[in-house]
Sequence to fold (656 residues):
Amino acid sequence: MRSSISPQAPGPVRRHMATGATAAFLGLTVVLGSGMAIPAGAAESTTLSGVILGVGANESQRTVTWYSSADTAQVIQVAPTAQLVGDTFPAGAATFDAMGAANIASSGGYNRHATITGLKEHTQYSYRVGSEGSWSATYSFKTQDFEGDYDFLFFGDPQIGSSGDTLKDQAGWQDTLNVATAANPDSELLVSGGDHVESANNESQWNSFLAPDPLRRFPVVATIGNHDVGGKAYEQHHFTPNTDRSPLYYKDGATATTSGGDYWFIYKDTLFIDINSNSYDEAKGGGDAAHVNYVTDVINKHGSEAKWKVLVYHHAIYSPASHAKDGDNKKRRVDFPTTFSKLGVDLVLQGHDHSYSRSYMIKNGEKADPNEQPGAADVYPGPGGVLYVTANSASGSKYYDITKPDSSGTSGAGNGADPLNPDNYWYNSVQNQEHVRTYAKVQVRNDRLVVQNVRSGTCAAPNAAVEKGAWCNNTSADQPVGSVVDKVTVHPFHGDKQDLQVNVPNPAPGEFGWTIDGYNGLVDLGTAKEQGGDRFEANGKINPIVVSDSRRSLAPWSISANVSDFRDADNTFPGSYLGWTPYVLDGGAGATANDPVASGYDDHGQGLAVSRGLGFAEQGHPRGNAKLGADLDLKIPDSVEKGGYRATLTITALSS
Fold:
């Protein structure tokens, strides 16, 4: 499992440690945030409200934020749920000191936050906030495996209060969260697209936003919208990890009266970066250039620690409704995409336009593949291709209708028509607006991302905008709650090399499985199996290498390869542990297989860490085609720490 984060400028760097199934709940440390320290003092009765579970710097952390009526010393108390007797926490329950400050006058009271660290995998935890004699209710959350596949849910613009009826908006928001988490109980994150409330400092609207119970059971990835930025309540309710609160990342550089900041975290091999897109004008103190520099810096420093890169911000640059033609969004549409393509971003999640869209794969501000078809179920980004998703309203408080393309062009800032589907903008593969609530489900898998837009409501209540007279185009019998509006699978590009992956488990009994997936260069060696009490072993096959030689010279040729070290963030083991047995699958072109190379674990040699021959042909060989393969033999000491490790097999072809 991953250990807690240790501070290192400009932010934490992930570390790993191995633990057994009976490991104690150790390493509980305090993470201090910005704000005024709370003086120690005698506990007094306080009112505690607005509790929300937030994401931490990695999967072994959670952040909790709440409001307090009194300025007293407070903590989070945490224990595995199995250790509680009724509602009584065990004597050894961990505590984490809270930090905070006085709220703005319109909010009243005080804000508090603390970060839980040192969590274990596969554990149900209970927690409460406050102090002896003045505790909140008890809440709970469950951790999953800290490696491997997972799902997260993405929600667009609850904007509680925008219909004019806060309680109706709350009902729709609560129903969407209940529907989504009931259908996907093992989802691990709730990601926000921003605009939590209609009026930034309206605590009645914030109370309705915070009312749903899932916000205390699943960690929330908060995003600031244009309706959240106009005051301090957003920052009082959401404390986020690794946050840079420099004036550059606030609207117009105004930190005293607004909320803002850019932040990042790593969760199960996904690097998430969340930016405050309200700051977009360089002339007013920060803007898009500052965000581009921030994203570039974070990916340069931490991109190698993750297999996926996901950006989140509020203002959709590729969307289907009226905001698609806003001048600020056209500016972002020019400023962002080339950098995102260059940095290898996989997915961008956006809100603001209160309608659903899924872009084509976009590279450098243009459609990456002119032949990609509208609504394609599978997409192949190639180098630099990025998928942009805009979320519809999750509460039903307000919907925006889809607007028509114009003659402003089919790249860059243009809003011209899609040549393959003239009713859509050139950049959108799918556009949808039925005036029903939806959410997006994102499945993060070993070698693909799956994005689905799912209905969480129908035309019926709770649906505030429709209840107040908006049209609705939904047949509940054919389009019921839980039905899928759109689904796409993204198959990432692995370049002209072969990435190898092997999952090394903890040295303990378990169910181990493996598969071989030769798509686009990834060779998956599966989950290594414990053998002989001192090692793990994994086997597989390289993707076949096809050789074609039609030269008249009949000159000799050879194919060789070497492997890099296997790496998972800061953990590595040498490529020398990989050996192979070459063979000829299809004879031709004089192909002859090279001799086997043993794993360095067996002979203390260098294995495939140095260049080794796969196949060759002598001078005078016949012309033709050949196909070469090799069985891979990976042996790993059981001292190697658990993780999902990858290496690169570099193929070299030589001929006279």
